[in-house]
Amino acid sequence: MDFRTEFKPLTVQPQEIEEKSFEMITEELGEHNYTEEQFKVVQRVIHASADFELGRSVVFHPDAIRAGIEAIRSGKPVVADVQMVQVGISKPRLAKYGGDVRVYISDADVMEEAKRLNTTRAIISIRKAAREADGAIYAIGNAPTALLELIRLVKEGEARPGLIVGVPVGFVSAAESKEELLKLDVPFITNIGRKGGSPVAVATVNALSLLAERQG
Q1: Which of 61, 72, 157, 211 sees the fewest Cβ atoms within 10 Å?
Q2: Is 84 buried (19+), middle (13-18) or exposed (0-12) by CB count in 10 A?
Q3: Band of the pLDDT at 10, cuts 50, 70, 90?
């Protein structure tokens, strides 16, 4: 049997593939109201998800880009809600400024406390992060409970994030947690609705680190 295909890729060069993808995204998205820097984030969100509806739903606090770049260039950590987010974020670009990516959800003390309190590890991990990672960028792509707990801690003055990237995916509390984030007077990047996920959180943080790097 002949398993060969008649389809030939436009290019097999990684950089050319990315550049062509971004050209296609810009063309297909059409007119938008994002600033140039915001659009860099939206491009990468669409690139990671192939979802233009998701891209159009991204919402930025007016200070979000500035706050994200400042946090990265100040060496603040990125707190990920799950390992999937941690793995995807570019560590070298953060390390250049002294930053790193932290995830607490599988820490022994977090698991023990969650069991004792009969609550989610995501909630307890955010409480731990609030104590240990002042000024951090929080990248939440999976757990609405983590985002809701972070919002509560911010309101009560127990957490001081530099930026919240709140894009959890799902059916239970995902959209609602983002609606609550929109009411918060701290820098955030989120989206409207149920869509989101680890790739979106990762793409957002990586876009910010690229913007930080380009500032020199």
Answers
A1: 157
A2: middle
A3: low
Q: How many CB atoms lie within 10 A of CB 201?
A: 32
Neighbours of 34 (CB within 10 A): 16
Of the candidates 205, 113, 129, 121, the one whose C-alpha atom is nearest the C-alpha of residue 161 is: 129
Joined together, the tokens standing for residue 52 give 């233009």
Give tens-digit pLDDT for 77-103: 999 999 999 999 999 999 999 999 999
60 strand-pairing partners: 189
Show me where the domains of the chain are located: 60-215
Partners of 140 in the beta sheet?
166
User: Which residues are the active-site residues?
Assistant: 47
Buried residues in 184-200 as b, exposed as e (16+ CB within 10 A): bebbbbbbbebbbbbbb
Topology of the domain covering 60-215:
Rossmann fold (3.40.50)
Name the 3-class secondary structure at 4.
coil
